[in-house]
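Contributing new complexes? Match this layout with 6-O-phosphono-beta-D-fructofuranose.
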Amino acid sequence: MKVGVLTGGGDAPGLNAAIRAVVKRCEKYGFEVIGIRHGWAGMLNKETVALKYEDVKNIVGRGGTILKTSRTNPLKSPDGIERVIKNFKDLGLDALIAIGGDDTLSVAKALSERGLNIIGIPKTIDNDVSETDATIGFDTAVNSAMEIIEKLRDMAESHDRVIVVEIMGRHAGWIALHSGLAAGADLILIPEEPFKIEDVINFVKRKIEAGQKPIIIVVAEGALIADYKGPITKDSSVDQFGHVRLGGIGEFLAKEIGKAGVETRAITPAHIIRGGPPTAFDRLMATRYGIAAVDLVKEGRFGVMVALRSCKIVTVPLSKALEKMKSVDIELYNEAKTFFE
Ligand code: F6P
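Output block (do not edit by hand):
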């Protein structure tokens, strides 16, 4: 049995732990493993590397992905899918484990519908893949964002300033909400509930009048201003999956608050929260995902994704996982509002 493994989309801490587990479990069953480099680009170009446990045994704590990654979408070129199918056969693969977010997994689903033996492992710091409690990288990103916000608090406190911290997460507010709550932010703005600029300014003024400086506002990069045309973007370019580059809402908001005469700074940690060693939680979950994925190969169950539900590893159809984006539960956001007074 020959098993391929690839990592696609944005890198995330914990990917290497998953790769390591896939290789180890494959060796247990006597399966050969090849790594596909640069995500789906590697399947288009047959860019592979043989993987033995010796090569991966010490990578459990390393961020990024030793296989490298890309945002290449084979569905974008007219013969892309046919080329991947041909290369899958040429490489002699019996199964392919695709580790990625909704983009990577949507290609996995398309290939599975064409009859290839594919299994998905959910990864993205954004945590926006449905049918699973968590995706690889989310916990680490939350912890990194929390630490950054806490460090910024020192500056904000010393200078009696308002700070606006813009946190990645694309169109979901998971990282902003979790890190903001954990770091004790005064206000958290997420895409799931559009906000009015004047409400934020009034909030800041109220706090200042009550002598409650500094004020820490966490805003998700995809947060929406009510009555505005959409999220604030870096430019108008889109990647191969049709995604715009988000960013700028923090600066925008800080300027608006500044116009009201309040000294405000905007800070955007951006990709920093995607780097560094994974947390123990991410290492453990990624390891369990890797083991479970190989077990599915052994059982001959394909077209599915491994997932975490109430601490247990389960299996869900790829089609179900991709039906819709997993947004923040408004009930959870309402709970968080306890601290926004
Ligand atoms: O999906 C992960 C993510 O980090 C998002 O939070 C962010 O919007 C995007 O990727 C950034 O993409 P890139 O690494 O291509 O700039």
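Reviewers usually confirm one structural detail per submission. For this one: The first helix runs from residue 15 to 29.
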